[in-house]
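Okay, can you check this protein?
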Amino acid sequence: MDNILDKLTTIDTRSLVDKVEMNLIELLIQRNLKVGDPIPKEVELASGLGVSRTVIREALLRLRMIGLIESKKHRGAVITNPDLLSLLEKRMIPQVLDNATLREVFELRLVLEVGMADFIMERVTKEDIAELKEIVANEPDLSDTMQFQIQHEINFHGKLYDISKNDTLRKFQKMLLPVFDYVHSSGLLKKEAVVKQFVSHKGLVDIIEHGTAEMLRNGMRNHLENHFARIFR
């Protein structure tokens, strides 16, 4: 005998506003609207989708909240270029994230900094190198055998993100550093850092000035070795 449950279909539990929100996004895509283009009026949307203007307003409000549309004087609502990280930034609060998420964010920053070597080597200028040298000149002499304080990390690594000339990376770094510091100091990673000699900030500057992208990738991986060790030991 067939199981009656096998014949049941999944019930769509999304609210009407949820469905209209997705329909509006699909409509904007189908019409091939670009940044700056006006979207149809509320009354047109309500008529076309067969729902009330109240539902349309709430769905449009959601699109405004994610930065997909904005209101312009004398033009109504228009398509905008959404800030990919703005919503994420508002939720990146270390104290309320669970341990699994915090650990993954900690790992994400390590991956980003090893992976952006090509962009740094391609886009670095003589002025950038001079600024990096000034930054490391203010760091402790034994910086190849000690863990950096958060301000040293912000100053040096922040400059590396600037050199990448990638605005999304730069914004991401500003979001990740507080999480990185929180994970580093909160005891989430139970293992103590294995403090041993590694490539210092000064060593990284030397590579950036005279080396290659591959050398910088290897140098950055070595520079972050003590952080990787806390994860893998």
Q: What stands out?
A: The longest strand covers residues 69-72. The first helix runs from residue 16 to 30. The chain has a mean pLDDT of 83. The two ends are 54 Å apart (CA to CA).
